Amino acid sequence: xxxxxxxxxxxxxxxxxxxxxxxxxxxxxxxxxxxxxxxxxxxxxxxxxxxxxxxxxxxxxxxxxxxxxxxxxxxxxxxxxxxxxxxxxxxxxxxxxxxxxxxxxxxxxxxxxxxxxxxxxxxxxxxxxxxxxxxxxxxxxxxxxxxxxxxxxx
Length: 154
Fold this sequence. Notes:
It contains eight helices and no strands. The chain is mainly α. It has one domain (14-153): Hypothetical protein af1432 (Orthogonal Bundle). The radius of gyration is 16 Å and the shape is globular.
């Protein structure tokens, strides 16, 4: 990954890649709050959850969905939690506050990438998922629920 001359059209600067991956790595250490709250031994992390969602998305087949977009949505949908944590209903944070906190986190994360096109794509994917604008985002919402059921079964 060579250093970009403009920061927005060429490759991402290596130092920015490392910074971004450190933020993403926070998902590996963020346990799913619902499982922690219920006293589950060795609860999955947000990264565990997102990975299995991406694998579920990989199985999306047919002409009804853009499978690549479904996979990207699955990977990005909980990225804000690397900064704000996994906010669960029992924490009594209003939907408006949760949405604001997560959007601010995503803006912070994407602004640090140093590549306008990649940052815009990640933010668009996150916003699509939150607003349920596309059939792909709606499918990922269903995958999110399905993955939780699979995890509960385990």
